[in-house]
C-alpha cells in the first residue's frame, strides 16, 4: 500500500519544532538498511516545500543530503529540478529533484531489478539505480523525543 502524508502535513509537523527523520529501506531480497538525519524540515507551499536535511548516520549511505538538500519539491506539472528536462516526468514520481536524483522514493514500484535506469523506488547508495526497493518508510519525530521506559 502507498501512503503519503502530504507536504502540508509534513510542514505542519516540522515548522514549529526541531525534527529528525529516519528512512527505513527494504530490498526485495529482504535486506534492510536505514538512513537517519538529525535535522529535517520543509518549508511551506509558497516556498515550494523546500527540503532541509542534514546530519546523516546509518548503514544505507547518504543518498539525500548532498543532492536534495535545499531543493524545492518537483511534480510532473511543477518542475523545480534545475535540469534541462522535467525530472519528475522522466523518473515517474514527485520528489526533491536536483539534476535529477540520488534517491527517488516516489518512483515506479518495479519490485526488484529493472532495465530502465533511475525511475524506480531508488536509494543510490543502497541498491543503486536499477533495483527498485520493496518497502520504504519515512519516520519523522521531534528531536526532543524521549522514549518512555517500561519496567
Could you characterize the architecture of this molecule?
The protein is α+β, with helices and mostly antiparallel strands. The protein is built from four helices and eight strands, in the order αβββααβββαββ. A four-stranded antiparallel β-sheet has the order 3-2-1-8. It has a two-stranded antiparallel sheet with strand order 4-6. A hairpin with an 8-residue loop joins strand 2 and strand 3. The mean pLDDT is 88.
What do the pLDDT scores average to?
A: 88
Which overall shape is indicated by the principal axes computed on the Cα atoms?
A: globular
Question: Strand count, sense and closure of the main sheet?
Answer: 4 strands, antiparallel
- Unreliable stretches covering 5 or more consecutive residues: none
Give the strand tally.
8
The secondary structure category is alpha+beta
Q: What percentage of the residues does DSSP assign to strands (E)?
A: 25-35%
- Topology pattern, helix = H, strand = E: HEEEHHEEEHEE
Helix content: 10-25%
Number of continuous helical runs: 4
First-last Cα distance: 35 Å
Radius of gyration over alpha carbons? 15 Å
Protein name: Fibrinogen C-terminal domain-containing protein
Pfam families: Fibrinogen_C
InterPro entries: Fibrinogen-like_C, Fibrinogen_a/b/g_C_1, Fibrinogen_a/b/g_C_dom, Fibrinogen_C-term_domain, Fibrinogen_CS
Keywords: Disulfide bond
In a nutshell, what does this entry contain?
This is Fibrinogen C-terminal domain-containing protein. By secondary structure, the chain is of the alpha+beta class.
Amino acid at each position: 500500500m502507498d501512503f503519503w502524508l502530504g507536504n502540508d502535513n509534513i510542514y505542519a509537523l516540522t515548522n514549529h519544532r526541531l525534527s529528525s527523520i529516519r528512512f527505513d529501506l527494504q530490498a526485495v531480497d529482504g535486506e534492510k538498511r536505514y538512513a537517519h538525519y538529525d535535522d529535517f524540515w520543509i518549508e511551506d507551499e509558497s516556498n515550494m516545500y523546500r527540503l532541509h536535511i542534514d546530519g546523516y548516520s546509518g548503514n544505507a549511505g547518504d543518498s539525500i543530503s548532498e543532492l536534495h538538500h535545499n531543493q524545492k519539491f518537483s511534480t510532473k506539472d511543477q518542475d523545480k529540478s534545475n535540469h534541462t528536462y522535467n525530472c519528475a516526468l522522466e523518473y515517474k514520481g514527485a520528489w526533491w529533484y536536483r539534476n535529477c536524483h540520488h534517491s527517488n522514493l516516489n518512483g515506479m514500484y518495479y519490485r526488484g531489478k529493472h532495465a530502465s535506469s533511475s525511475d524506480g523506488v531508488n536509494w543510490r547508495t543502497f541498491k543503486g539505480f536499477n533495483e527498485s526497493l520493496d518497502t520504504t518508510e519515512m519516520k519523522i519525530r521531534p528531536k526532543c523525543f524521549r522514549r518512555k521506559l517500561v519496567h
